[in-house]
Specification:
With about 170 residues, the chain is α+β, with helices and mostly antiparallel strands. The chain is about 25% helix and about 35% strand. The chain has 2 domains: about 80 residues, GMP Synthetase, Chain A, domain 3 (2-Layer Sandwich), CATH 3.30.300; about 70 residues, Roll (SH3 type barrels), CATH 2.30.30.100.
């Protein structure tokens, strides 16, 4: 069974559907696919190692070669495009349930597509998530359950606690 994949739409979703099986077979997990730019689009692939080990330059190279071949054959973008493969980094996007669970207790920002209670932007401590909602304890007090299908972007905020957490050995991390 494949791990939960990020929620995507349009071309990003089509590309994710094309490349995720290859990435997963290689021992990685897809974190994000994002296509940006018009004249020469950039296809950005973010991935994690499924074993929790630190992501290396060699991992980027392996994924780039494999994904490049898949995209060349499938040809989802009819114009010339560039491929960029990276790790999510420390202040990573939160795209999957497991990301919200793994980083519970850390500070994040979330932007919604449609306002909830009159606002689109939220900042607070991650409390976790399920398949339908991500939960935050807001900086200004109170808790909120944000509908996952309405999240435009969610990202960790770089803090000393987050740096210390990411420097721990891979044991116990999902």
């Amino acid at each position: 069974m494949s791990p939960e994949r990020p929620r995507l739409e349009g071309l990003d979703a089509r590309i994710a559907d094309l490349v995720a099986p290859t990435i997963e077979h290689m021992g990685y997990e897809l974190v994000r696919v994002q296509v940006s730019g018009k004249e020469k689009p950039v296809v950005q692939i973010m991935a994690d190692r499924a074993d929790g080990a630190p992501f290396r330059v060699e991992d980027c190279e392996e994924i780039s070669h494999a994904v490049g071949a898949v995209l060349d054959v499938a040809d989802p973008i009819k114009a010339e495009w560039m491929l960029e493969v990276s790790s999510p980094g420390i202040d990573r996007p939160l795209t999957r349930t497991k990301d919200f669970e793994r980083f519970a207790g850390h500070l994040a920002t979330v932007e919604l597509m449609i306002p909830l209670d009159g606002r689109k932007r939220f900042r607070g401590t991650v409390l976790g998530a399920d398949l339908t909602h991500a939960r935050l304890r807001l900086d200004e007090g109170g808790e909120v359950a944000l509908p996952r299908e309405q999240i435009r972007r969610a990202r960790l905020v770089l803090t000393d606690a987050l740096i210390a957490f990411t420097e721990q050995p891979a044991q116990g991390k999902n």
